[in-house]
Amino acid sequence: MKTELTCIICPNSCQLEIESEQTADGLPLIQNVCGAFCPKGVEYARQEILSPCRTISTSIAILHGELPLASVRLTNPIPKDRIFDAIAEIKSYVLEAPVSAGTILISQILGYNSDVIITKTVPRKSSN
Amino acid sequence: MKTPKETAHAQTKHVDVAIIGGGPAGLAAAIQLYQNGIHNIIIIEREKQLGGILRQCIHDGFGLTRFSEMLSGPEYAQAFIDQVETLGVPYLVNASVVHFSPEKHLTVVTPSGLQTWDAKAVILTTGCRERTRGALGIPGDRPVGVFTAGVAQAYINLYNRMPAKEVVILGSGDIGLIMARRLTLEGAHVQAIFEIQPYPNGLPRNIQQCANDYHIPLYLNHTVTQIHGRNRLTGVTVSQVDKDRQPIAGTDKFYPCDTLILSVGLIPENELSREAGVALDPRTNGPVVNEFYQTSLDGVFVSGNVLQVHDLVDYVSLEAERMAGNVTAYLHKGALPESSIRIVAKNSIGYTVPQRISGQSDFLLSLRVSRPLTDCRISVCQDGKEIAFRKLKKAIPAQLIQLTVSTDKLSSGHDLEVSAHEN
Amino acid sequence: MKQLYDVIIIGGGVIGSAIARELSRYQLKICVLEKNLDVCYETSGRNSGVVHAGFAYDVGSLKAKLCVEGNRHMGVLAEELGFPFRRCGKILVGSTPEDRTSLESTLAQGMANGVSDLVFVDKERIRQLVPDVQGEFGLYSPSSGIVDPFLYTIAFAENASANGVEYFFNHEVTAISLNADQTYLVTTTKGTFYSRWIVNSSGLSCGKISDMLGITGYTVVGSKGDYIILDKRVGAMLPMPIYPVPNNFTMGIHLTNTIDGNVLVGPSGGTTMDMGDYSVPGDNIEHLSTCASRLWPHIQKKDYIRNYSGLLAKRLDENGVIQDFKIEIRDDIAPHAINLVGIESPGLTAAYAIARYAIALMREREKLEPNTSFNPIHRFPIRLRDLPLKEQAELIRENPDYGEVICRCEQVTKAEVLQAIHNPLGVHCVTGIKYRTRAMMGRCQGGYCQMRLTQIIEKETGEQATDLRYARADSQVFFGKVRQEAE
To answer: Nearest CA to CA, how far is C484 from chain B (Å)?
Structure first.
């Protein structure tokens, strides 16, 4: 079976062609991936056929900060169909300023090998 | 004895370099100058924080070539802001340049006073603004609910306000695609993305992860022909267009919605350049420059989106750093080599940057094709002889293309012609 | 017992607010009932801002008389009320023998109406007056001018308010009845009011309100006018408005330099009975550009900032011919009611004179005592950009909020935004602040400043995010916060 995909790993957006075969237990067996400029593309293809994963970015509420929100993102992709569950979990966090970019907000979100890190530094609002 | 009126008008400050705009281009330029030993500089930023447009670009895709990481916009900006702080590069925030004269005299409005600055060199890194509904002249009512993508992005990511529930997006550029995903993740329903061209404008990766992933249909050859709603938007009429991008009669369809997001083009922000009399190229809407990134005004340099709209911020930083190197040379030598060799855009080339060169040094040529091409050869010729080329499997107008041109092969002071041909 | 007003003015546009201001010179309890959230949403805020000289109207008509009077008084009024006004002059241009005949009769009509400085000029002179204008000859009207129609209307309203007039916004009149004691009961969408006098200055609704007063039979239609706004870059090249050869029914598609430096191209449009239709059709934008380009070559799509539409209430006779202003008191049907019907162009120019005329009718029927504390002077907050640099520096020192630029295209500072939000009439919608400061009216159309603007409005008024209105009551801007816990 031939599948065509766009790799989303980097802006190159390589057009990938994957040859796979359905095995007895229902899982696809990937035979060949071509069109990838780098190994990450091959890995992306395998993952996409088996269980598509994505990273996302969103925001959390910040109290007493120079800004009302701090942006956050996932460090690794998680299954695509869990994205909205991840967002719901992330939204429940409210932090007080100051917060620093790079801080881990949630470790191993939903039990996956992916952390949620804060990506924006928000200083405390100076009272004057 | 000075009267209060005289003291209110503080003394003019003198610097070697004034950088107008503290976004990615301005920050990279400032750091490079500082590292080159040019310390008497000032970054003037009108927002309350440094970082420019990156502050609101919370999605990843930044820094792959520079940091070998897929960072969000704020993280990319923070790397440079941290360096600015560590080096002690002087900067002003919440400061707006209101006048810029050809003599490189700046008037800056800040809450702590009206300031005037004199600089030996001025760098404009003022970025872009978005094309508006008014500029497009989309017919119909003028309700609230029509937002450019950047405004919606700022509301959601910086101001904590949700301006949309039922959404239609016009324009398949990256900003429109990114907002399709952002709006969906925050609970809005994006019904469709419409693109007037026969090909999508944004990166295929964004079409996949922003539109396809969320089952948002992308319709090519379509545009919004009427806006409805006297108070808040109630819907838009969408029509199919022909090969001349004209609406086809009988293809009208009404989409009820409360929000229309426009992602229909970026315009380099050159109001200050205009005021000072800098010559602009109507094809880029940015200044005409030479390979040193110097404009038609001596000692005035530009880089980043104000010069040409970039796709990747990594290349913005590189461009700004190259420019800063030239500014350094300008300060040391007092002038840069004359650039009298014109670069002319020919077959299928939309524009080139720079538009003029000295011919004395190799340079990076940036360009965009004027129509989509496959299996093509970008060719730089002088007097009919090819002196540089680049082969590409695919080239689209949305994508910035760059190639290094060596000037060894130059044989005269005649024009260089740049063209693109499909095999 | 509900409060009894001496005068209720229905419609707070330029006519209603001019009447309010002039009436506040007398000891009267006055209120204005305005259906919108601000005073300049309809005709008053949707025109070219031209102060007409008075030559384009039938000799002996109220339009002619009141226009000339209003024009003459405009300089004094601008001094008193502090709105921007410039007597820049105007030219009308023509090329054909028919044009010449037309302009000559316009000249004669103008002279008869009292516009004594109107003069026929040759090709060389029109080019001197407006470089690049296309035409063989023209008429030059030195007493014509331009005004900011928003600030002009708001100034009348704020001065009226300062002199005791109450403004009720979001109050649409739905019924009027005459009580046995000859006082009026006015029913609105937000409650009832009682008054001895009524003024119908409701503009587009003048036919409707006239009917409510029992004065029926008027035919009022909406005359649509669409405009394109061009960038200030183009405005720098146009020193005064350029008009084509007029007739007494339409001014034609013209080019106007605005007092803030833009160019307006328009108006053009048909008639409508839908007094809320402000849509601009696509082919009209083309049409405007084509027609105006015949007068002046500098109209290009790349300079379009925005387009907008306006409506004029025109009174017609049974043959569909446009009629003069109707300003009357019908003692037999509606005693103590000043009925203004069909106040279209030159209503803006004539507003003060219309107000004096209307009040004169009132004074024929009632003795009015002067209000000795009447203050004719009104000032808008200082704009940083209007001051020379040295004074700008001083102003910022006194008030650092003048040092924070909110709208970059129009150079509007935070101090101006704050003062606009805390305006005397209590207007809080986004367009209210826009018209008072010019924020969002520049080339980026709020791309840079609208987020800041809405944030400041919310903070200063204490409104919830979902309460903020853009212009009218149904124009909600936000559906809520993205994260509830944060600001």
So the answer is: 9
